[in-house]
Automatic annotation (TrEMBL):
This is Uncharacterized protein. It comes from the Eukaryota. InterPro entries: GDC_P. One of its GO terms (biological process) is glycine decarboxylation via glycine cleavage system. GO terms for cellular component: apoplast; chloroplast envelope; glycine cleavage complex; mitochondrion. GO terms for molecular function: glycine binding; glycine dehydrogenase (decarboxylating) activity; pyridoxal phosphate binding.
Length: 59
């Protein structure tokens, strides 16, 4: 929940686009994260691993 709140705060403070952000697109589909083309304003890594512990528990 802490990471979701941080994502909301980024939108509130204008650091993230209101319509095209990691929160709006969650959950990130594997087909999107693994596609050749990436046109989102945040990194693929952030899309695939929104919190540090997700790297260890990704399934």
């Amino acid at each position: 929940m802490i990471y979701i709140r941080e994502e909301i705060r980024e939108i509130e403070h204008g650091k993230a686009d209101k319509e095209n952000n990691v929160l709006k697109h969650a959950p990130q589909a594997p087909s999107v994260v693994l596609a050749d083309k990436w046109e989102r304003p945040y990194t693929r890594e952030r899309a695939a691993y929104p919190a540090p512990w997700v790297r260890q528990a990704k399934f």
